[in-house]
Amino acid sequence: MLRQALDANRRLQQAVADGESPEEVEVHRVLADRLYRQVTEHELIAAGEAPHIIH
């Protein structure tokens, strides 16, 4: 899951660097953000500290 989040962030950075449309960059940003949140929530749950909101 962490690898997916990191890959999504790299794709976002590449989309910005390539000058993709704002809409396409936003799609990459939303995906990267969602995956990062999932990783963070998973780590919190594994540590016994459930997040306030689970997405």
Key structural traits:
55 residues, mainly alpha
Walk me through the structure.
The chain has 55 residues and is mainly α. The protein has one domain (2-46). The chain is built from 2 helices and no strands. It has helices at 2-17, 22-46. Helix 1 (2-17) runs antiparallel to helix 2 (22-46). It is elongated and about 40 Å long. The mean pLDDT is 92.
The gist of it:
The chain is an all-alpha fold and 55 residues long.
What does the largest sheet look like?
A: none
Taking all Cα atoms into account, the compactness measure Rg is: 13 Å
The pLDDT mean sits at 92
The helix/strand series, from N terminus to C terminus, equals: HH
